[in-house]
Amino acid sequence: MPKLVWKMQTLGLLHVGCDEPACDAFDEPNAVFTSMDTGNYAKGKLPPGPTPLPIIGNILQINIKDVTKSLSKLAEVYGPVFTVYFGMKPTVVLYGYEAVKEALIDQSEEFSGRGSLPIVDRINQGLGIVFSSGEKWKQTRRFSLMVLRNMGMGKKTIEDRIQEEALCLVESLKKTNASPCDPTFLLSCAPCNVICSIIFRNRFEYSDEEFLALIKYINENARLASTSWIEEKHNKQSEFTMDNLITTVWDVFTAGTETTSMTLRYGLLLLLKHPEVTAKVQEEIDRVIGRHRSPCMQDRSRMPYTDAVVHEIQRYIDLVPGSMPHATTQDVKFREYIIPKGTAIVTSLTSVLYDGKEFPNPEQFDPGHFLDESGNFKKRKRVCVGEGLARMELFLFLVSILQHFTLKSLVDPKDIDTTPALKGLGSIAPFYEVRFIPV
């Protein structure tokens, strides 16, 4: 077993999926804080919001099973910027494209802090890249990008590895013999192996016990027990401790595996639901690539419809409805409000991805959202450390599957329900089975 996997097992690092907590706030933006207030909040002029109850805040006004819907209803009453309370502390919610853009892009530095998720904080202890903040986040992110680039992310070598893994995925799907199957496991193995090939310089067979254990660790919860050991342990100012390194690598594994595999899994379900879209993608594959060579990233520029389908899948499934929680790094003047330093910020990505001004008929799955009048791909900005790798994987895996298989649903497409099985911190695709019929 690779030493890193062993160390992960020792640390008990996990993927954590949980519902967003509840929240609370005042009706008037100039409200004077009561005994619930702490620290800097007394000097703020927070946005309006529902009146909180003592201790529990707005917990009764937030449906934990569908936080997105609850925030949507509150936005109808209080507008695109409002305050709710997660327990006893205020959380400012930004709803809609304009408010989110104004904060995360126009005032990115002021809103660059990382908010708190108690369960995750207990496990990660502020380490890694996903849930860290401040100088630790800056140094870890910079270091992670440098290492990933040195290991080949965004270069031809990574594309070669994804192409190799795509062929392995296709061969495994062929072994299903066109029988009904749940694609979840195989769609997890493929992106996980890409990360393994970057970090371990080696891929695993899908039946390998160590690899199966790694997949299990990604998908299950366990307790974190960590100890520091390396030269850097004596430098109290350094962020490059062994614990931070392991947690960062685990973040890369989790994000690089689960987000891609879930997007692929959800994407196949949407293609089953919309066979007319699948037919257009396969026509483009036949015309540009054919059936006898592997797809490559150079093909993407000549396949605007397929590129639009990949982006529309990402938009429609709304994989992380609330994004990761942010926090203000200083006292911020935002519109007519004053938000104190350290205030938790929740941005509704659902409200951005389903903004009717940006995406006409947002409730519809329509690749045309990313095509102009001439049928050319229309790019929209997204920013993520692993964005380039994820885009490459999604395109090459999806095209490879559709190049070799016809997707056959076990039910009539019009009866397919694409409603998420769970929608909390992430959107989880419902269970389904599909036949992969070789072309």
Automatic annotation (TrEMBL):
<dbReference type="InterPro" id="IPR036396">
    <property type="entry name" value="Cyt_P450_sf"/>
</dbReference>
<keyword id="KW-0408">Iron</keyword>
<keyword id="KW-0492">Microsome</keyword>
<dbReference type="GO" id="GO:0020037">
    <property type="term" value="F:heme binding"/>
</dbReference>
<keyword id="KW-0560">Oxidoreductase</keyword>
<keyword id="KW-0479">Metal-binding</keyword>
<protein>
    <submittedName>
        <fullName>Cytochrome P450 2C21</fullName>
    </submittedName>
</protein>
<dbReference type="GO" id="GO:0006805">
    <property type="term" value="P:xenobiotic metabolic process"/>
</dbReference>
<comment type="similarity">
    <text>Belongs to the cytochrome P450 family.</text>
</comment>
<keyword id="KW-0349">Heme</keyword>
<feature type="binding site" description="axial binding residue">
    <location>
        <position position="384"/>
    </location>
    <ligand>
        <name>heme</name>
    </ligand>
</feature>
<keyword id="KW-0256">Endoplasmic reticulum</keyword>
<keyword id="KW-0503">Monooxygenase</keyword>
<dbReference type="Pfam" id="PF00067">
    <property type="entry name" value="p450"/>
</dbReference>
<dbReference type="InterPro" id="IPR002401">
    <property type="entry name" value="Cyt_P450_E_grp-I"/>
</dbReference>
<keyword id="KW-0472">Membrane</keyword>
<dbReference type="GO" id="GO:0016712">
    <property type="term" value="F:oxidoreductase activity, acting on paired donors, with incorporation or reduction of molecular oxygen, reduced flavin or flavoprotein as one donor, and incorporation of one atom of oxygen"/>
</dbReference>
<dbReference type="GO" id="GO:0005506">
    <property type="term" value="F:iron ion binding"/>
</dbReference>
<dbReference type="InterPro" id="IPR050182">
    <property type="entry name" value="Cytochrome_P450_fam2"/>
</dbReference>
<dbReference type="GO" id="GO:0005789">
    <property type="term" value="C:endoplasmic reticulum membrane"/>
</dbReference>
<dbReference type="InterPro" id="IPR001128">
    <property type="entry name" value="Cyt_P450"/>
</dbReference>
<dbReference type="GO" id="GO:0006082">
    <property type="term" value="P:organic acid metabolic process"/>
</dbReference>
